[in-house]
């Protein structure tokens, strides 16, 4: 079952959204769609791991340049 789930594009796309929400600490916004689509494309490549996806997410300038709200 785990192997079949990992091969599912729908499951991998959903995982990207959930990881994005976790990393950003918020729900996704409409303006996040382009970035999420790019991350889903990245994660759809055969053999791409969760660790590689997480690294790709935090390598984005928006991650390191975001400000903390008071």
How would you portray this structure in words?
The radius of gyration is 13 Å and the shape is elongated. By secondary structure, the chain is mostly helical. The model has no long low-confidence stretch (mean pLDDT 88). The protein contains five helices and no strands.
Low-pLDDT ranges? none
Cα-to-Cα separation, first versus last residue: 44 Å
Q: What helical percentage do the residues reach? A: 55-70%
Sketch the topology as an H/E string, one letter per element.
Answer: HHHHH
What's the count of strands?
0
CA radius of gyration: 13 Å
Shape verdict: elongated
Mean pLDDT across the residues is 88
Strand content: under 5%
- What composes the largest sheet? none
Q: Provide the structure class.
A: mainly alpha
**DSSP summary: helix tally:** 5
Short summary:
This protein is an all-alpha fold and 70 residues long. The chain contains five helices and no strands.
Task: Spell out the key features of this protein.
70 residues, mainly alpha, 5 helices, 67% helix, elongated
């Amino acid at each position: 079952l785990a192997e079949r789930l990992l091969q599912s594009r729908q499951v991998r796309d959903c995982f990207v959204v959930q990881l994005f929400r976790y990393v950003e600490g918020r729900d996704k916004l409409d303006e996040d769609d382009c970035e999420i689509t790019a991350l889903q494309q990245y994660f759809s490549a055969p053999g791409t791991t969760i660790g590689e996806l997480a690294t790709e997410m935090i390598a984005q300038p928006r991650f390191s340049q975001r400000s903390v709200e008071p």
